[in-house]
Amino acid sequence: MSQSLGLRWVRKWGVSLASLSSGLVTLFVFRRGLPDVGWIVGYLLLLWLIFAVFTQVRAPLEARGRRLVLSAADYTVQTLYHNLLLFVLPAYYASATLTSVNAWFLLAVAGGALVTAVDPWHRLVVHPRPWLDNVLLAFSMFAALNVALPLVGVRPFWALEGSVILCALALTPALRRSGGSWTGAWVRACVFAGVAVALLLPFRSWIPPAPLHLARATLARDVDGLEPVGPVKSPVSAADLRAFGGLVAYTAIHAPAGLREAIAHVWTKDGVPVERVPLSPIRGGRAEGFRTYSRKTDFGPSPEGRWAVDVVTADGQLIGRLRFAVTE
Protein backbone atom coordinates (compact mmCIF):
# COMPACT_ATOMS: atom_id res chain seq x y z
CA MET A 1 0.00 0.00 0.00
CA SER A 2 2.74 2.46 0.99
CA GLN A 3 4.68 1.51 -2.15
CA SER A 4 1.61 2.23 -4.28
CA LEU A 5 1.19 5.61 -2.61
CA GLY A 6 4.86 6.35 -3.21
CA LEU A 7 4.54 5.51 -6.90
CA ARG A 8 1.48 7.74 -7.25
CA TRP A 9 3.32 10.58 -5.51
CA VAL A 10 6.33 10.19 -7.82
CA ARG A 11 4.06 10.05 -10.86
CA LYS A 12 2.25 13.20 -9.80
CA TRP A 13 5.13 15.32 -8.50
CA GLY A 14 8.30 13.66 -9.82
CA VAL A 15 8.33 15.47 -13.16
CA SER A 16 7.57 18.75 -11.40
CA LEU A 17 10.55 18.36 -9.09
CA ALA A 18 12.84 17.29 -11.95
CA SER A 19 11.70 20.21 -14.10
CA LEU A 20 12.08 22.69 -11.27
CA SER A 21 15.54 21.37 -10.39
CA SER A 22 16.81 21.56 -13.97
CA GLY A 23 15.31 25.02 -14.28
CA LEU A 24 17.07 26.24 -11.16
CA VAL A 25 20.36 24.93 -12.55
CA THR A 26 19.66 26.86 -15.75
CA LEU A 27 18.86 29.96 -13.74
CA PHE A 28 22.12 29.63 -11.79
CA VAL A 29 24.10 29.37 -15.03
CA PHE A 30 22.42 32.47 -16.43
CA ARG A 31 22.94 34.62 -13.34
CA ARG A 32 26.68 34.46 -13.89
CA GLY A 33 26.25 36.88 -16.82
CA LEU A 34 24.22 37.57 -19.94
CA PRO A 35 22.41 34.51 -21.31
CA ASP A 36 24.40 32.59 -23.89
CA VAL A 37 22.75 32.88 -27.28
CA GLY A 38 23.90 29.35 -28.14
CA TRP A 39 21.94 27.88 -25.22
CA ILE A 40 18.81 29.77 -26.22
CA VAL A 41 19.04 28.72 -29.87
CA GLY A 42 19.68 25.12 -28.84
CA TYR A 43 16.63 25.06 -26.59
CA LEU A 44 14.50 26.69 -29.29
CA LEU A 45 15.53 24.28 -32.03
CA LEU A 46 15.02 21.22 -29.84
CA LEU A 47 11.65 22.49 -28.60
CA TRP A 48 10.40 23.26 -32.11
CA LEU A 49 11.68 19.99 -33.55
CA ILE A 50 9.88 17.87 -30.94
CA PHE A 51 6.75 20.01 -31.31
CA ALA A 52 6.76 19.75 -35.11
CA VAL A 53 7.34 15.99 -35.20
CA PHE A 54 4.80 15.02 -32.55
CA THR A 55 2.16 17.39 -33.89
CA GLN A 56 2.17 15.31 -37.07
CA VAL A 57 2.45 11.83 -35.55
CA ARG A 58 0.24 12.31 -32.49
CA ALA A 59 -2.96 11.01 -34.11
CA PRO A 60 -1.36 7.81 -35.53
CA LEU A 61 0.39 7.11 -32.20
CA GLU A 62 -2.86 7.59 -30.29
CA ALA A 63 -4.61 5.25 -32.70
CA ARG A 64 -1.94 2.61 -32.02
CA GLY A 65 -2.19 3.11 -28.27
CA ARG A 66 1.37 4.45 -27.91
CA ARG A 67 0.48 6.69 -25.00
CA LEU A 68 3.80 6.16 -23.24
CA VAL A 69 5.68 7.69 -26.18
CA LEU A 70 3.27 10.64 -26.30
CA SER A 71 3.54 11.20 -22.55
CA ALA A 72 7.34 11.20 -22.76
CA ALA A 73 7.18 13.77 -25.57
CA ASP A 74 4.72 15.94 -23.65
CA TYR A 75 6.89 15.90 -20.52
CA THR A 76 9.99 16.73 -22.59
CA VAL A 77 8.30 19.70 -24.23
CA GLN A 78 6.95 20.87 -20.88
CA THR A 79 10.44 20.74 -19.35
CA LEU A 80 11.88 22.65 -22.31
CA TYR A 81 9.17 25.33 -21.90
CA HIS A 82 10.08 25.68 -18.25
CA ASN A 83 13.83 25.83 -18.75
CA LEU A 84 13.55 28.28 -21.62
CA LEU A 85 11.32 30.69 -19.68
CA LEU A 86 13.40 30.38 -16.53
CA PHE A 87 16.56 30.95 -18.58
CA VAL A 88 15.37 34.37 -19.81
CA LEU A 89 13.43 35.36 -16.66
CA PRO A 90 16.40 37.18 -15.00
CA ALA A 91 16.96 39.21 -18.19
CA TYR A 92 13.36 40.42 -18.09
CA TYR A 93 13.56 41.03 -14.35
CA ALA A 94 16.63 43.26 -14.85
CA SER A 95 15.05 45.07 -17.79
CA ALA A 96 11.49 45.52 -16.51
CA THR A 97 10.43 48.62 -14.59
CA LEU A 98 8.09 47.42 -11.85
CA THR A 99 6.19 50.73 -11.77
CA SER A 100 5.38 50.56 -15.49
CA VAL A 101 3.17 48.46 -17.77
CA ASN A 102 6.10 46.30 -18.90
CA ALA A 103 6.02 44.61 -15.48
CA TRP A 104 3.02 42.62 -16.77
CA PHE A 105 5.20 40.88 -19.33
CA LEU A 106 7.63 39.93 -16.57
CA LEU A 107 4.72 38.44 -14.60
CA ALA A 108 3.63 36.50 -17.69
CA VAL A 109 7.10 34.99 -18.12
CA ALA A 110 7.23 34.09 -14.40
CA GLY A 111 3.71 32.63 -14.57
CA GLY A 112 4.60 30.50 -17.59
CA ALA A 113 7.72 29.21 -15.85
CA LEU A 114 5.68 28.35 -12.73
CA VAL A 115 2.85 26.57 -14.56
CA THR A 116 5.29 24.47 -16.58
CA ALA A 117 7.26 23.62 -13.41
CA VAL A 118 4.29 22.12 -11.55
CA ASP A 119 3.10 19.13 -13.56
CA PRO A 120 -0.39 18.80 -11.96
CA TRP A 121 -1.10 22.46 -12.79
CA HIS A 122 0.12 22.00 -16.35
CA ARG A 123 -2.02 18.89 -16.82
CA LEU A 124 -5.05 20.67 -15.39
CA VAL A 125 -4.70 23.98 -17.25
CA VAL A 126 -2.74 23.37 -20.46
CA HIS A 127 -2.85 19.69 -21.38
CA PRO A 128 -6.62 19.45 -22.04
CA ARG A 129 -6.50 22.50 -24.30
CA PRO A 130 -4.28 21.99 -27.38
CA TRP A 131 -4.75 25.62 -28.44
CA LEU A 132 -3.35 26.80 -25.10
CA ASP A 133 -0.32 24.56 -25.61
CA ASN A 134 0.25 26.32 -28.96
CA VAL A 135 -0.06 29.70 -27.23
CA LEU A 136 2.50 28.59 -24.64
CA LEU A 137 4.86 27.47 -27.40
CA ALA A 138 4.57 30.78 -29.24
CA PHE A 139 4.97 32.81 -26.04
CA SER A 140 8.02 30.84 -24.90
CA MET A 141 9.70 31.20 -28.28
CA PHE A 142 8.85 34.90 -28.47
CA ALA A 143 10.22 35.60 -24.99
CA ALA A 144 13.44 33.73 -25.79
CA LEU A 145 13.98 35.21 -29.26
CA ASN A 146 13.36 38.72 -27.97
CA VAL A 147 16.36 38.24 -25.67
CA ALA A 148 18.51 36.24 -28.10
CA LEU A 149 18.35 38.56 -31.13
CA PRO A 150 19.79 41.65 -29.36
CA LEU A 151 22.65 39.43 -28.16
CA VAL A 152 23.77 39.21 -31.80
CA GLY A 153 23.36 42.95 -32.42
CA VAL A 154 19.73 43.19 -33.57
CA ARG A 155 18.03 46.41 -32.44
CA PRO A 156 15.18 45.92 -29.90
CA PHE A 157 12.53 47.08 -32.40
CA TRP A 158 13.59 44.56 -35.03
CA ALA A 159 14.04 41.92 -32.33
CA LEU A 160 10.38 42.37 -31.41
CA GLU A 161 9.20 42.23 -35.02
CA GLY A 162 11.45 39.33 -35.92
CA SER A 163 10.49 37.36 -32.82
CA VAL A 164 6.77 37.59 -33.42
CA ILE A 165 7.16 36.65 -37.11
CA LEU A 166 9.35 33.63 -36.35
CA CYS A 167 6.94 32.46 -33.63
CA ALA A 168 3.98 32.68 -35.99
CA LEU A 169 5.83 30.71 -38.67
CA ALA A 170 6.89 28.13 -36.07
CA LEU A 171 3.21 27.27 -35.59
CA THR A 172 2.94 26.02 -39.19
CA PRO A 173 2.80 22.32 -38.14
CA ALA A 174 -0.10 23.07 -35.77
CA LEU A 175 -1.92 25.06 -38.48
CA ARG A 176 -1.81 22.12 -40.86
CA ARG A 177 -5.19 20.53 -40.48
CA SER A 178 -5.48 16.74 -40.51
CA GLY A 179 -4.72 15.61 -44.04
CA GLY A 180 -4.29 19.22 -45.18
CA SER A 181 -1.52 20.60 -47.34
CA TRP A 182 1.65 22.23 -46.10
CA THR A 183 1.07 25.07 -48.57
CA GLY A 184 -2.21 25.96 -46.89
CA ALA A 185 -0.60 25.77 -43.46
CA TRP A 186 2.24 28.02 -44.62
CA VAL A 187 -0.24 30.59 -45.99
CA ARG A 188 -2.19 30.58 -42.73
CA ALA A 189 1.04 31.01 -40.76
CA CYS A 190 2.05 34.01 -42.92
CA VAL A 191 -1.35 35.62 -42.43
CA PHE A 192 -1.09 34.97 -38.70
CA ALA A 193 2.38 36.56 -38.67
CA GLY A 194 1.06 39.71 -40.37
CA VAL A 195 -1.81 40.00 -37.89
CA ALA A 196 0.55 39.42 -34.96
CA VAL A 197 2.90 42.18 -36.15
CA ALA A 198 0.00 44.63 -36.51
CA LEU A 199 -1.29 43.78 -33.02
CA LEU A 200 2.17 44.10 -31.50
CA LEU A 201 2.89 47.64 -32.73
CA PRO A 202 0.70 49.55 -30.23
CA PHE A 203 1.89 47.35 -27.34
CA ARG A 204 5.67 47.69 -27.72
CA SER A 205 5.87 49.63 -24.45
CA TRP A 206 4.42 46.60 -22.62
CA ILE A 207 7.52 44.50 -23.37
CA PRO A 208 10.86 45.15 -21.60
CA PRO A 209 13.76 45.70 -24.05
CA ALA A 210 15.73 42.78 -22.59
CA PRO A 211 18.65 42.32 -22.27
CA LEU A 212 19.08 46.14 -22.08
CA HIS A 213 18.82 47.41 -18.52
CA LEU A 214 19.95 50.23 -16.27
CA ALA A 215 23.29 49.47 -14.66
CA ARG A 216 23.30 52.78 -12.75
CA ALA A 217 21.02 55.80 -12.34
CA THR A 218 21.92 58.89 -10.31
CA LEU A 219 20.57 62.38 -9.83
CA ALA A 220 23.43 64.91 -9.58
CA ARG A 221 24.32 68.60 -9.69
CA ASP A 222 26.79 68.18 -12.54
CA VAL A 223 28.84 65.71 -14.59
CA ASP A 224 32.60 65.70 -15.06
CA GLY A 225 34.39 63.21 -17.28
CA LEU A 226 31.16 61.20 -17.66
CA GLU A 227 30.94 60.77 -13.91
CA PRO A 228 28.30 62.40 -11.68
CA VAL A 229 29.44 65.22 -9.41
CA GLY A 230 27.52 66.13 -6.26
CA PRO A 231 24.90 63.37 -6.08
CA VAL A 232 21.48 64.64 -5.02
CA LYS A 233 19.09 62.62 -2.89
CA SER A 234 15.31 62.76 -3.17
CA PRO A 235 13.35 64.72 -2.09
CA VAL A 236 14.84 67.99 -3.33
CA SER A 237 13.51 71.29 -2.04
CA ALA A 238 12.49 73.96 -4.56
CA ALA A 239 14.98 76.35 -2.93
CA ASP A 240 17.86 73.90 -3.40
CA LEU A 241 16.75 73.28 -6.96
CA ARG A 242 17.03 77.00 -7.75
CA ALA A 243 20.40 77.18 -5.97
CA PHE A 244 21.74 74.26 -8.02
CA GLY A 245 20.64 75.89 -11.25
CA GLY A 246 19.08 72.61 -12.38
CA LEU A 247 19.71 68.89 -12.13
CA VAL A 248 21.48 66.22 -14.13
CA ALA A 249 20.04 62.74 -14.72
CA TYR A 250 23.00 60.38 -15.10
CA THR A 251 22.39 56.85 -16.39
CA ALA A 252 24.56 53.91 -17.40
CA ILE A 253 22.84 51.36 -19.66
CA HIS A 254 24.03 47.78 -19.92
CA ALA A 255 23.81 46.37 -23.46
CA PRO A 256 25.42 43.39 -25.22
CA ALA A 257 28.50 43.91 -27.37
CA GLY A 258 27.75 44.90 -30.95
CA LEU A 259 24.38 46.47 -30.18
CA ARG A 260 23.78 50.10 -31.18
CA GLU A 261 20.49 51.73 -30.18
CA ALA A 262 19.26 55.32 -30.10
CA ILE A 263 17.84 56.35 -26.72
CA ALA A 264 16.34 59.39 -25.02
CA HIS A 265 15.63 60.77 -21.56
CA VAL A 266 12.00 61.75 -21.05
CA TRP A 267 11.49 64.07 -18.06
CA THR A 268 8.01 63.79 -16.57
CA LYS A 269 6.17 65.60 -13.79
CA ASP A 270 3.30 63.82 -12.04
CA GLY A 271 3.21 61.32 -14.89
CA VAL A 272 3.02 63.95 -17.64
CA PRO A 273 5.98 64.25 -20.09
CA VAL A 274 7.45 67.77 -20.06
CA GLU A 275 10.69 67.33 -22.02
CA ARG A 276 12.32 64.72 -24.26
CA VAL A 277 16.12 64.81 -24.64
CA PRO A 278 17.64 62.67 -27.44
CA LEU A 279 20.98 61.15 -26.43
CA SER A 280 23.92 59.53 -28.17
CA PRO A 281 23.12 55.97 -29.33
CA ILE A 282 24.11 53.17 -26.99
CA ARG A 283 27.22 51.21 -27.90
CA GLY A 284 27.03 47.89 -26.11
CA GLY A 285 29.80 45.83 -24.59
CA ARG A 286 31.00 47.99 -21.69
CA ALA A 287 30.84 46.06 -18.41
CA GLU A 288 29.90 49.18 -16.40
CA GLY A 289 27.27 50.20 -18.96
CA PHE A 290 27.11 52.92 -21.60
CA ARG A 291 27.23 56.22 -19.69
CA THR A 292 25.08 59.16 -20.70
CA TYR A 293 23.19 62.05 -19.11
CA SER A 294 20.76 64.91 -19.66
CA ARG A 295 20.49 68.24 -17.88
CA LYS A 296 17.33 70.15 -17.00
CA THR A 297 17.53 73.76 -15.85
CA ASP A 298 13.95 74.96 -16.30
CA PHE A 299 11.55 73.32 -13.84
CA GLY A 300 8.91 76.04 -14.17
CA PRO A 301 7.55 78.45 -11.56
CA SER A 302 6.04 75.59 -9.49
CA PRO A 303 8.48 72.66 -9.58
CA GLU A 304 6.91 70.81 -6.65
CA GLY A 305 5.71 67.34 -7.55
CA ARG A 306 6.69 63.79 -8.43
CA TRP A 307 9.35 63.80 -11.12
CA ALA A 308 10.86 60.98 -13.14
CA VAL A 309 13.34 60.52 -15.94
CA ASP A 310 12.42 57.64 -18.24
CA VAL A 311 15.21 56.08 -20.29
CA VAL A 312 13.54 54.92 -23.50
CA THR A 313 14.59 53.41 -26.81
CA ALA A 314 13.93 55.25 -30.07
CA ASP A 315 10.74 53.19 -30.48
CA GLY A 316 9.38 53.86 -27.02
CA GLN A 317 10.40 50.81 -24.97
CA LEU A 318 11.21 51.71 -21.38
CA ILE A 319 14.72 50.67 -20.28
CA GLY A 320 14.51 52.13 -16.78
CA ARG A 321 13.29 55.01 -14.65
CA LEU A 322 14.95 57.45 -12.25
CA ARG A 323 12.43 58.97 -9.81
CA PHE A 324 12.67 61.90 -7.44
CA ALA A 325 10.41 64.40 -5.71
CA VAL A 326 10.60 68.16 -5.45
CA THR A 327 9.12 69.70 -2.30
CA GLU A 328 8.40 73.29 -1.22
Molecular structure report:
This protein is 53% helix and 23% strand. It is elongated, with a radius of gyration of 24 Å. It contains 10 helices and 9 strands. It is of the alpha+beta class. It folds into 2 domains: 2-206, no CATH class; 213-327, Immunoglobulin-like. A 5-stranded mixed sheet has the order 3-9-8-5-6. A 4-stranded antiparallel sheet has the order 2-1-4-7.
Residues in helices, as a percent range: 40-55%
In one word, what is the shape? elongated
Structural class: alpha+beta
Number of strands: 9
Mean of residue pLDDT values: 84
Spans of at least 5 consecutive residues whose pLDDT stays below 50 are none
Alpha carbon gyration radius: 24 Å
Distance between the termini: 74 Å
Please provide the ordered H/E string of secondary-structure elements: HHHHHHHHHEEEHEEEEEE
Number of helices: 10
Please state how the strands of the largest beta sheet are arranged side by side: 3-9-8-5-6
Largest sheet: 5 strands, mixed
**Proportion of residues in β-strands:** 15-25%
How many distinct folded domains?
A: 2
Topology, element by element:
Blueprint (H helix, E strand, L loop, with lengths): L1 H29 L6 H27 L3 H29 L7 H15 L1 H7 L4 H22 L4 H15 L1 H4 L6 H19 L12 E12 L2 E5 L4 E2 H7 L2 E8 L5 E10 L2 E12 L6 E7 L8 E9 L4 E10 L1
Parallel strand pairs: 3-9
Antiparallel strand pairs: 1-2, 1-4, 4-7, 5-6, 5-8, 8-9
